[in-house]
Amino acid sequence: MYFNGTTDFISVPSSAALQLPIFTVSAKFRTTKDYTKSVIDGMIVNKGGTGGEATGGNQNYGIRIFKETNKIRAGFETSTGTDYEPASTVKVNDGKWHHVLCSFDGAKVRLYLDGAQNASMVTNAKPEINTQPLVIGRNSKDSTRWFQGAIEKVYIWNRRLSDAEAIGVNSNIIPRDASLVYENELCGCKSP
Length: 192
What we know:
Blueprint: E1 2-4, E2 10-12, E3 23-30, E4 42-47, E5 61-65, E6 71-77, E7 83-84, E8 87-91, E9 98-104, E10 108-113, E11 116-122, E12 134-136, E13 148-157, H1 163-170, E14 180-184
Antiparallel strand pairs: 1-13, 2-12, 3-9, 3-13, 4-5, 4-12, 5-6, 6-7, 6-8, 9-10, 10-11, 13-14
């Protein structure tokens, strides 16, 4: 589905199933937007949003294109607003389809890009659990940080996928067990 970068987004009300201390979040996307010129991140999918440090408004989990580098940052924020988001080693605004997956098991945040682990961060910090909505295409907590480009195949699990499962999702091998708490294929919609 194409997101125009100014008004297009999908919002899902918070529920207990989406408030996750352990998680895996995954999406496919493509964009050519240069976020270094826009002075804002491009939020692909997030619950809780970024941009403020007040308790109740921090990111439970999310994936974004970072404004300073055009690289992926994915992970979570604590209730005090401290970020635990490893960054990808490559820029992703090249107009090609990319698959990104981020998982957290309570001890390590892992970032996979295009079927391979790309970055990680060891931490025993806890994600902020909040009642902010799950949002695709912009910041969860307010109308900022719009994504411009296409997003599809958003999945969220309430567990860390194994390395083999994480790599498999890149090839459309989707673990559809009881731990899959959200899925939205976003296919067959308008394109740019």
